[in-house]
Amino acid sequence: MATNSSTPETGTSPSDTPAPDISDALVAAEPRRRISGAVWGALAIVYVVWGSTYLGIRVVVETMPPFLSAGARFIVAGLILAGLVAWRQGTSALKVTWVQLASAAVVGLMLLLGGNGMVVLAETSVPSGLAALLIAVVPAWVVVLRRAFGERPGLGAYLGVLLGLAGLAVLTLPGLSGDVRLWGVLTVIVATVMWSVGSFSSSRIPMPANPFAASAYEMVAGGIGCLLVGLGRGEQYGFALDEVSGRSWTALGYLVVFGSVVAFTAYAWLLHSAPLSLVATYAYVNPVVAVLLGALILNEQLTWPIALGGAVVVAGVCLIVSTERRR
To answer: Angle at Cα 143 formed by Cα 43 and Cα 263, nearest 5°?
Structure first.
């Protein structure tokens, strides 16, 4: 649902790193392209840290309003990141055109308000592990978007989409049976579509050249959007800071530093520096981490629909990614 506090150890600054068009990277025949250590390091961050953020979100919403907490998280993280960019690379790294700023704001709203914000809302009624498994279908939506824009993914990608959709159907069973609120499951599914559109659009509109500056603008814009939605929903009424638990404050701090400044920035950098099909592999690693943490720390039950549906979704994502990496 989103590098450490400085730039990754790439040997160059992000502004020196080429930002190839992601749609070209998806269809280019690069079977022997060597993946750099910086890319694998950023992937590891996204794999592990984002897998743990579902647990963090679940703990935050125990005593905090969903959209207000998400808004505070992203605004604080965005300002911290902007400060770090200015400190490490100079204020010139934050300079963007109005068109680039608007593009970053649109992507930030889709990723963080439409994507992450709706996940935060859903986790008030959906277990963190189930939310992560539902989100694993993101690469399938990316394939659908590519086809809608005239690209022709391989047969394996289409089969992966069918598997992913079948897995989603199974994962909705807890909601249909009453074990989990159905609206929460459907909210996460809508969030996956928004996240996919945001990720896909980032390569097709004029974004800031510096991916870290782009992340900062995206987070601030997404955070403001979450705050406005939270205020519009009336989340401020009946909410008192002194009633927030210590573990919710700790989880929010973790989400700000690691889930946003670290992992979201790593993801944004990867979108500029690696094939999207490789970046999308986080979608079948995160659920495993999230389910394990949810079971170990929050005692979330792993029911048969969740286990079976999750396995089907992950199988579909694996098929999509393996097909894309051979193209």
So the answer is: 20
